[in-house]
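Incident log, structure service

09:12 report received: a user says their structure output differs between two submissions of the same chain.
09:20 pulled the input from the user's history:
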Amino acid sequence: MGEVVLPRRMFLWCMAVIYLTAFVSLYVQIPGLYGNEGLLPARWQLRYSGKPLVEQLLSSPTLLWLGPRLGLDTHTAMELLCLIGAALSLAATLVEAFRDSVVFFCLWVLYLSMYEVGQVFLYFQWDNLLLETGFLCILVAPLTLIGGSRGVREHDRVTFWLTRWLLFRLMFASGVVKLTSRCPTWWGLTALTYHYETQCIPTPLAWFAHQLPVCWQKLSVVGAFVIEIAVPFLFFSPLRRLRLGAFYLQVLLQVFIILSGNYNFFNLLTVTLCLSLLDDRHVYFWLRKAYKTDNGNDDSKLWSWLCYLLELVVWALLIVGTIICFDLQLDTAKKGISSRTGECFFFFFFLCACNQFCFSFFMFLKMSLAAFTYHQFNLFLKTVTIPCIWIGVLSLTWEMVTSLFRCACVSGFFKRFWGTVQWTVFAGAAASMFAVSLVSSVGNMGTDKAHKRSAVNRLILFQVPFTFIEYDSNSRLWPGVRQAYEMVDRYQVVNSYGLFRRMTGVGGRPEVVIEGSSDGVTWTEIEFMYKPGNLSAPPPVLTPHQPRLDWQMWFAALGPNTQSPWFTSLMYRLLQGKRDVVELIQSDVSQYPFHQQPPAYLRAHRYRYWFTESKADGSFPERWWRRVYDEEFYPIVHLGNSFLEGMLNQYGLKDKSPPRRLSNTTVAQAVRWVRSQVRGVPAHTLIWTLIACSATFCLLQGLRHKSKDAEKPSDAHKATATDRTENAADGSSSDHHEKSDEQQADEEADKEADSEDEVEEEGEEENEVDEEDEDEERIEKR
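09:34 re-ran on a clean worker, output below:
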């Protein structure tokens, strides 16, 4: 693989932007989610028992333990940490010097501090992915703020390889869990006929995607399986163009997801991880600049043609194998394409066999297996998991060896010694991260931790560790690796992934609608800003912001209210009329139907929602949604209601401690002032404003540097031209002297006077000066 200087810089810049998005998005929602009068106050997670600070940090690694020492309550301390994180990430976005290992360490610690008290509203896979990727940034970023250098380090390719391995684990696990779940929609290739209308927060384009023919939806599922399961093996290909092809396929999938659904910063973070597949040469191609290599054109034409041929074979196998293994056929009667999963097992195993040169196993399975069943897919996983690990081992070893060779080629003993020491440290860290990432997170997850995440992981966000994809492979891991994982588990250094395990809402999208009333007779629906409710309201576009209450409302609709204890807290706070909670529903409080007086009664019903269909004449319908009533989700409650009080006491949601006084320290007043400035501003508007301003500043900064770089070559060219002119002038003067000597000889022969010679020499020198001036003028004009 070529140099990765520019992709690494792009990766760090993108991570700074994603951190900025995550902190700002969370900051806006802190009062309603974790404030003293929020849904799940964060101070309930921190029990100050008088233990030393070190023991508190070890039990729960969060900087919020420092709040009382600064005179801040937990709510204000959370806002302060979010503001610090947003400021640091903004600085890293604008100034390259702040894209430093120390800065990324601070950002990781700050977000981990939020995660530890975030409870169910922060237990999403993208939060885990951000923490793991953020930790890798500490290894990838240069260490310059304490006297280091921003130059290329010999071990950069080793640490940057970890992001490629993380991308492989993410994509491969996301594809595999869809089949291991035994979900009939994934096995029948019909998942996308439900996905667009049943996802949490669709975009307007999701309505149009939902209208596509069923055959197109099936082809899309086939493409998703190929991109998520087969293509990730190309991440470790020694052929550069195969990696680039894998990059564009992954980006294409993420772009389609972004266009059809609001998944906050998750897809942007995945695209950022895809940058690990690039090299400097391709980035220069994007910039339309010539890429200078030391090797020149040393590659023989025969080797180039062999590489082209091998790449064509791989892509041909990918296309033909997809057609054969998914049984894609042109159905002329239905004017479409039919497909099934009957033979795709052979295809995936064949691609794995190509990567590992295990053709004999493939032929054996092809002859012995006649149908694609769940048990046969498990056999495939058992066969492929360990070889996948060895592919990662060989790829990482190659990067380590090449980096060590680069260290040995450094001139100077002390530079070579220091580079070798750095290589030893970072190579050991990379090997440790790789080993720990193989351990089963689910198998080692504590009871409390598993209980907290169960509501999320049980559904589409089911997490599958890499080796836990196949249990026997997981059981063969070295026990020392498991012990190392247990030591770092609480810090979210490595996590397990697997999205959309099962397709929900096959019988219609379940949606909880809350209604309020002042007299118990007339009921008014409480409409959320983002989630579906009003049948005529178009779906929003709010990426990269994540409205965490709207997301949890989607999860709550998938089961009874007892599976979502926080929903009782929501009903209680709305009956109390808490503004911080109301702003989670409508940032503009005037749009809330009970903004003048809280409702006296509340209830919740579950409906089934579907996208409307286009009319027979091809025109668009007046409404985006249609719905039917399903059942009661939450009974009628009011303040003092026995059912409500019993639920609050059962889940420990009623705060019995007296209200605490607000801190009047300078820091607390500054935090409250910032809150007053952003109150009422929609979060996605605030985020996009910051991103647009940052991108504009970086663009102007880049153009300014480009103009400076353009001026430097012109100055150098001018200096070179001046030197050439002086050399020409020296040459012309020497010729002049030779000619003058000949003239003197002739004049002596002719016995002419010396005074005439001097006059002629002065005239010729004046002519030479004029010629030099003319030459300089011509050069300056050029």
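09:41 both user submissions now match this output. Likely a transient worker issue. Closing.
09:42 reviewer note: The first strand starts at residue 329 and ends at 331. Residues 342-371, 441-465, 731-745, 755-759 have pLDDT under 50 and may be disordered.
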